[in-house]
């Protein structure tokens, strides 16, 4: 699915944060009402069956809002549920392999350097996730990159770049003017008491060129 | 790949046991010389990239012996490396989904009851793995089944059944007469000082009807 009208602006990445799936779906629904444009389901612990079933339920919700579902890491799950795309990191299946498996599905890849960004383009990525822009504890191994590095990366490729890592209402404006096409957010929305308002606020503060 | 001449008799399931990949490949090569007929790569900890790369190296070795490679759990990895098949448990992607993704690849599924075995057949499995026949610590959650249950299961389906779980040279003969078409072995081969001899001995002691 190459969606030319696809917006990466407010990209929600899920995390159960020790809660239930029902709680997660409730929060995601609020976040969608608040203007989230894309949702990635990330499941680092779940077995395949659980991942698959949660993906189906999340997709059903997203379909109501016409918001695309991106599956993290498990290409088979993405294919199985008919997701709009798949997102892989540098330690996941190689991008070229992913592309060969998914045809024209959206494929995103996490990068930290200009070299990785350019390799992503070469290997067929539709977008890159760049981070961690504000190092956080969500991903313990997420290495930080500076604002200058972020700009260098966004300028080095023609595909959309999405910033990720520790983005909150307090720091998101620092990303304005960096050339990104969107911000990927986890805690700032899902840990908020009011995910709808949180998404709206983040959306407002992020100004894309 | 429906291989009518496929033998499930001596089915090696891998485990690194804390060793290196090089050590594993060395042991698998010896085991192949000892008559292993099928190899499953099981990676519960590895990231996608590592799983993929190890699969490619293992497949290269198996191809020399014309022995099929079965990938555990990750259907995407199986597709990516052109494996002969994929094996899933009850907590992995549902069998029907797996079948729809892999076409005519060999698909195996772990079962513990007649009901699960018959469901496996309905959902398109090519073979079933039945166990744990001799409960062990390799899979901490493996529940034991009795010899009578094993016989009941093998008699309930027409597809090949492979016994798994704690099978050693000391107990493999107890499986004779149960209607299985093979034994899946991990430690008894890979923890042996002489994997070739271990495979030969197991192979000799297991008498299929
Ligand atoms: Ni499409």
TrEMBL record, chains A, B:
The keyword Metal-binding applies. It holds the Pfam family TMP-TENI. InterPro entries: Aldolase_TIM, ThiamineP_synth_sf, ThiamineP_synth_TenI, TMP_synthase. It comes from the Bacteria. 4-amino-2-methyl-5-(diphosphooxymethyl)pyrimidine binds at residues 40-44, 72, 110, 139. It catalyses: 2-(2-carboxy-4-methylthiazol-5-yl)ethyl phosphate + 4-amino-2-methyl-5-(diphosphooxymethyl)pyrimidine + 2 H(+) = thiamine phosphate + CO2 + diphosphate; 4-methyl-5-(2-phosphooxyethyl)-thiazole + 4-amino-2-methyl-5-(diphosphooxymethyl)pyrimidine + H(+) = thiamine phosphate + diphosphate; 2-[(2R,5Z)-2-carboxy-4-methylthiazol-5(2H)-ylidene]ethyl phosphate + 4-amino-2-methyl-5-(diphosphooxymethyl)pyrimidine + 2 H(+) = thiamine phosphate + CO2 + diphosphate. Mg(2+) binds at residues 73, 92. Keywords: Magnesium, Metal-binding, Thiamine biosynthesis, Transferase. 2-[(2R,5Z)-2-carboxy-4-methylthiazol-5(2H)-ylidene]ethyl phosphate binds at residues 136-138, 166, 186-187. Residues 11-189 form the Thiamine phosphate synthase/TenI domain. Gene3D superfamilies: Aldolase class I. Its EC number is 2.5.1.3. Its cofactor is Mg(2+). Binds 1 Mg(2+) ion per subunit. Condenses 4-methyl-5-(beta-hydroxyethyl)thiazole monophosphate (THZ-P) and 2-methyl-4-amino-5-hydroxymethyl pyrimidine pyrophosphate (HMP-PP) to form thiamine monophosphate (TMP). This is Thiamine-phosphate synthase. It comes from Priestia endophytica DSM 13796. The gene is thiE.
